[in-house]
Amino acid sequence: MSKLSLVTKGFVKDNPTFALMLGMCPTLATTTSAVNGMSMGLATAFVLILSNMAISAIARFVPDKVRIPSYIVVIATFVTVLQLLMQAYVPAVYDTLGLFIPLIVVNCIVLGRAEAFANKNSVLDSALDGLGIGLGFTLSLTVIGIVRELLGAGSIFGYKLIAGDGILVFVLAPGAFLVLAYLLVIFRKYILKNE
Amino acid sequence: MVACLGCVTLVCAALLGVVYVYTEDAVSAAQQAKSTKAIEAVSPAFDSLCEETEADGRTSYYVARDAEGANIALIVTAESSKGFGGKIKMMVGFLPDGSIYDTSVLEHSETPGLGAKATEEGFKGQFRGFNPFQRKLSVVKDGGDVDAITAATITSRAYCDALQTATDKFNTLSQEVFPKPQQEEEPAAGEENIEEDTRNE
Amino acid sequence: MEYIIILISAVFVNNILLSQFLGICPFLGVSNKLSTAAGMSAAVCFVITLSTLVTYLLQHYVLDPLGVGFLQTIAFILVIAALVQMVEIILKKLSPALYSALGIFLPLITTNCAVLGVALTVVTKEFTFGGEAHMLNLGESVMYAFATSLGFGLAMVMFAGLRETLALNDVPKAFKGVPVALLTASILAMAFMGFSGLV
User: Fold this and answer.
1) Is residue C101 classed as helix, strand or coil in its secondary structure?
2) Is A158 exposed, middle or buried (CB count within 10 Å of its CB: 0-12, 13-18, 19+)?
3) Band of residue A192 on the pLDDT scale cut at 50, 70, 90
4) Mean pLDDT (whole number) for C76-104
5) What is the pLDDT of residues B9-60, one digit of tens each?
C-alpha cells in the first residue's frame, strides 16, 4: 500500500464516522457548530497520530496479556498532554469542548486503530494511518457541524448567512441523530458505492 | 507482566510530569487573561485593578482604579441556581452611584435559542446603566422593570436573581470601596448619590 | 429529598444517552435485542456506580492532596479497566450464560464514554439539585452515578424494544439498520426533551 493511500483511505473507505461507525459520542455532542466539530476532529487526530506512533514503537515489548491496559495508559498520557497544551494555548476552545477532550481516551477510534493497525506496522506507517483516519474524522465532524450550524443557527463558521433564528432542533440533541442519519444514508448510497 | 504495565505507567506519568511543569505557567497565564478579559467587559476603562476577598474568605471582588488611584468601579461575581438548566454565573460591574455599568454571563446551561439569548445584546443591553436602587430588578410579569426574553421567563428571572445578589454585595462593600465625603451621615450609598446628582443638575 | 431530585434529574431530565450523548456506541451496537440490552445495562450499572465511588475517593484522598491532578485521566481509566476485569471474572463464575451472551461487549464497557464521563463529571462540575450550586459529596455522587446508569438502562431498553419492532417493518433499503435506528433515537431524544425544567 503506497504511503499516500495510507492517508487518503481514512477519508472515504475507512471514514471512522460513516464507514467504520466508531467514535459516535463526540460526533453527536460536539458538532453543534462547524468550528466545534473541526476542533474536536483535530484534537482527536493529534492524539491518534501520537498514540499510533508510540504504540507501534513499544508493541514488540509489551506482553499480550497487559496489551490493552498498556495501550490505554499510553493513549491517556497523550490525551492529558493535549489537555495541558489546550488549556495553556487555546483556553476558549478547551472550554467549549469541555468533557469530551478527556473522553478521547475512550474514543473507540483511537484504541481501535492501535489494535488493528499500529501494533502490526512500522512507526511511520502508523503515523500516516493516524493522520489519514484523524483527517477523515475531522472531515466528517466538520461536515456534520456545517449542516447543523447552517440549519440550526443560519451561520457557517460563525458567519451569519441567514438572518434570524434557524430551526433550533438541529443544534439540540434530536437534531444530532437526525443529521447523522441522513448524512449516513447519503454517504452509503452515493459515495461509498463509487469506491 | 504487571511489572511491564507498571513500567509503562511510570514512564508515562514521568512524561506527563515534565509536560505539566512546562505548561504550568502558560496555563495560569491563560486563566488570568480570561479573568481579566471578563472584568474588562463589565467595567469602564481603568488603569489598575485591585483584587480583594469577600467576607466568606473565598470569593473575590475587584476594584478598578483610574490613573490617580481613585476607585471608579466595583466588579463582583454573582450566581443564581434558579436557571432553567442550572447555575448561571455572571460578572457585574457597578459604578460608584450604584448603577450597573455592564453585565456578563460567565457560565450557564440554558437552552440555545431561548434562555441562551440572555448573553445576547437584545436582553443584556437593557442592564447597561440600570440603577437597581431606582428601578425594580425583576421582570415585568413580577411587577418590575426588566423586559424578559420571550418564552424564557425562568432564565430572565434567574438573571435578575443573580443581579440582585450582586446588588446586595455592592451594598455590603460600597461603604469601604467608595467612601463618602465626611459632611453627611451614611444612608445606602445609591440613594445618597441620587440626591447629590439631582442637586447638581 | 435531594436524592429523589438527583434520581429524576439523571434518569429523565439529563438522560446520559439522549441528552448528554455518552454511551452511544453500545446504544447503537447492542440494542438489537431486548435481552442483551438489559444484560448490558445491568453490567454498566454495576461498573458505573462502583467506579464513581472509587474514583471519587481516589480524587479527594490521593490526587488532590498530592497535587497530581494531571494524572487524573490515567488514574481514572486504570481504575475503570481494573473494575471491568473484575466484573468479567465475577460474571464468568456466577452467570456463564450472561457472560457468553454479552461476549465482546463486556470488555468494551471500559471504553464506554458513560463510565469515564460520569466519573469525571462528579469531580469537576457543580450541581444545583434543589439548592445552591455545589460540588457533590460522596453519597450524592454515588447516587448520581447509580441514577445515571438507571437512565442508561431505561433508554437502552426502550430503544431495543423499538428496534425489535422496527426490524419487522418495511424500512426503505437505504435506511435499513443504523440510519433508521438513528432516526428513532432522534424522536426518542425529542420525547425526553419534554422533561426539561422538571427539576
Assistant:
1) helix
2) exposed
3) low
4) 85
5) 888 888 888 998 888 889 889 888 888 888 888 888 888 888 888 877 778 8
- What whole-number distance in Å separates Cα of residue C124 and Cα of residue C130? 19
Q: Which chains touch C (3 or more CB pairs under 8 A)?
A: A, B
Write out the DSSP string of A30-96.
STTSHHHHHHHHHHHHHHHHHHHHHHHHHGGGS-GGGHHHHHHHHHHHHHHHHHHHHHHH-HHHHHH
User: In chain C, what residues touch B81 (CB-CB under 8 Å)?
Assistant: 128, 131-133
pLDDT at A180: 94
Nearest CA in chain C to B115: C197
User: Does an H or E element contain A156, and which?
Assistant: strand A155-156
Residue the block writes with cell 445495562: C41
Q: Which of C24, C123, C148 to mutate to test the interface with A (most CBs of A within 10 A)?
A: C24
Distance from A135 to chain C by nearest Cα, in Å?
21
Contact A66 B30 (CB under 8 A): no
Interface mutation vs chain C, best among A20, A24, A167, A179, most C CBs within 10 Å: A24
Complex prediction ipTM: 0.86
Per-residue pLDDT for C102 more than 80? Answer: no
Which CB contacts under 8 angstroms, 24+ apart, belong to B121-125?
Answer: B123/B147, B123/B149, B123/B156, B123/B159
Q: What is the pLDDT of residue A117?
A: 86
A127-155 confidence digits (pLDDT tens): 999 999 999 999 999 999 999 999 988 88
Cell, residue B195: 440626591
Does the pLDDT of residue B193 top 50, yes or no?
no
C-alpha C39/C-alpha C105 separation (Å) is 11
Mean pLDDT, rounded, of chain A? 88
Interface mutation target, options C12, C14, C17, C77, chain A, most CBs of A under 10 Å: C77
Closest chain C C-alpha to B171 CA, distance in angstroms: 22
* Cell reading at A21: 461507525
- Mean residue pLDDT of chain C comes to 87
Tell me the count of A-B CB pairs closer than 8 A: 61
Stretch C137-142: mean pLDDT, rounded?
88
Beta bridge partners of B139: B146
A168 and B4 within 8 Å at the Cβ level: the answer is no
Mean pLDDT for B102-108 is 87
Which positions in chain B touch A176 (Cβ < 8 Å)?
A: none
Query: How does DSSP classify residue B152?
Result: B
Q: Domain residues of chain B, as ranges? A: 34-177
